[in-house]
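REQUEST ID: PR-0412
SUBMITTED BY: lab tech R.K.
PRIORITY: routine
TASK: structure prediction, single protein chain
INPUT:
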Amino acid sequence: MNNPNIAALVKSEKSARKRMRYLALLNFSEGHSSTAITSMLRVSRTSVNRWISTYLAQGLSGLDDTPNPGRPSILSTAQQAKLKMFVQHQSLPE
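STATUS: complete
OUTPUT:
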C-alpha cells in the first residue's frame, strides 16, 4: 500500500462512506491493528477486516459502493406501461 496515494484519496473523496474505508486502509498501512482502527473510526471490527480483505483482493475498486436495487415495484409490468402512457399523454391543467 502506498500511503501518499491513500492519504490523497482520503482528502479528495467526497463520499463519507468511501473516505471512512480509505482512512481504515491508511491506518492499517501505518501498522495500526484492526482493533485500534475500530476505536479510532468508531466502526465495527468486522467492517474494517472486510474493507482490508476486499482491498487486498480487488484493489481500490473493491471499495466502491455497489448499487442497491431498492424496493421491488408493487406495480406489474402492464400497470407500469399503462402509467407511463397516462403520464406521457396527459397535459397539466393551466
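NOTES: The radius of gyration is 22 Å.
REVIEWED BY: pending
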